[in-house]
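Blinded run. Sample ID left blank on purpose so nobody reads anything into the name before looking at the predicted structure. Input follows.
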Amino acid sequence: MNLFSELAWQRTTGLRKAIHELPFNTELAAGKLAPERFRGYIIQDAIYLGQYSRTLAIAGAKAPDGPTLRAFVQSALDAVSVEQALHERYLAEFGVAPEQIASAEPSPDCLAYTSFLVATAYHDPWEVLVAALLPCFWIYWDVGGAIARRTEPQNPYRAWIETYADESFGEAVRQVTAITDRAAAAATNTTQTRMLSAFIRSSQYEWLFWDGAYQQRGWPAPA
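Blinded prediction complete.
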């Protein structure tokens, strides 16, 4: 096992299995996820994507050379544009106006995840940052593909499923994965260890994000 991505994927096997088995994803696959849970999720995901896009921009700016910068930013932004189009569709469907997104408060899980990514962008090496960014792409591709293989055509969340199972999204995932592998191959052992820790932490946040959406987890009420 020579590639960083192979090691990272193997080290998160149990966690990824738990993500697939979360009620949010199993009920979405069955077309039975409550609309209010999905509505809350898509609002939080729109908030998350805004911060994620900024973090991607920082990653591009910190890339070690021009070709890597262009490949990373293009692949990343292609995937983000697809997600934004999906958000616009569902937000309109649920009657959520753009100004409501601007004024919405991030959930505890959303704030924790985005804060981790922003902190990594500013305080860690570029190699660690790309490793932290990779799970958002790769795990969604993995989950979307798994659901697409077993869901029914009339699933009300079919557009969500098809977005993340689409081959064009998969190509963006493969590009970012390859860039992360090249970064790891040129990194020191210490940096590789930090990359693996960042990949695992982001994968844990993916679990928390989906679980928080299903539980409709919010902030404790002030006294």
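Unblinding after everyone has recorded impressions. Residues 66-93 form the longest helix (28 residues).
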